Amino acid sequence: MTLRSIAIGEQCRVGSISLRHDTAKRLEMLGLTDGTLLTLLNKKKNGAVIVKVRGTRFAFGREIADGIEVTHG
User: Fold this and answer.
1) CA distance linking residue 7 with residue 28, whole number of Å
2) What's the pTM?
3) How many C-beta neighbours within 10 Å does residue 27 have?
4) CB 23 within 8 A of CB 61
């Protein structure tokens, strides 16, 4: 399942990231790697999501959120 498919407030772990190489590397540099625990804080109507990762909030657009596969926490 993708990051956009989980419910608000739910915790999950990053399973894999299927994005362009440069985007995936940037997320890795920000600490979003396979197995990272995150919490979905909010979903926007346009498909964007806000997540909490290691105490930091990140906002991802629809394309990036759809490229992040997650598993339940």
Assistant:
1) 24
2) 0.89
3) 21
4) no
Residue the block writes with tokens 């105490």: 55
> Pseudo-torsion of CA 27, 43, 72, 53, nearest 10°?
40
Q: Are 32 and 3 in contact (CB under 8 A)?
A: no
Span 13-71, pLDDT tens digits: 999 999 999 999 999 999 999 999 999 999 999 999 999 999 999 999 999 999 999 99
Q: HSE (CB half, 13 Å, CA atoms) of 38?
A: 34
Contact 47, 28 (CB under 8 A): no
Extended strands (E) in 1-73: 11-17, 37-43, 49-53, 56-60, 68-72
The residue with tokens 């440069």 is 22
Q: What is d(CA 6, CA 28) in angstroms, rounded to the nearest whole number?
A: 21
